[in-house]
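Please, does this match?
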Amino acid sequence: KIRFELPNIMLVDIGLPGMSGLEGIRLLKESWPEILLLMLTVYEDDEMIFDALCAGACGYLLKKTPPVRLMESLNEAMSGGAPMSPEVAHRVIKLFRQISPPDKADYQLTPHELRLLKLLVEGHNYKTAAGALGVKVTTIAFHMRNIYEKLQVHSKSEAVSKALRNRLV
């Protein structure tokens, strides 16, 4: 019997044999929501970037990313960050500026959850957010599970995206 240990982080490409990497992300997130999935691909069009992040990717890197930056990005993702290639980050910002938010939905977020979301939108990871709020990282993880449930998302990047789209923070 082969023992399978779940990885902490996986690199995923959009073009996978037999299935789209976007569908792969969705399936992996359904089965193992705690796995970090970092997109590494040649595709840099707006729709692919947006779909990958909404599917649950914690970041989006282009394959031309230098090996040193790739290693830094893996560490960044493991620390709660959302690494993106500079070109991708520029496109994401441009895309957010074009989106007109829907009517503000009431997700029943507590003031503490909103403060945490605001810190994540500002680029904090769990550790620095915990320091800023004066709580433990485990407390942040607890609140993030509640935020995921209330916003109906599966990753930090999805929560940040939804918070920005709906102008929650």
Notes: Strands lie at 9-12, 15-16, 19-20, 36-41, 59-62. Residues 111-165 form a domain with the Arc Repressor Mutant, subunit A fold (CATH 1.10.10.10).
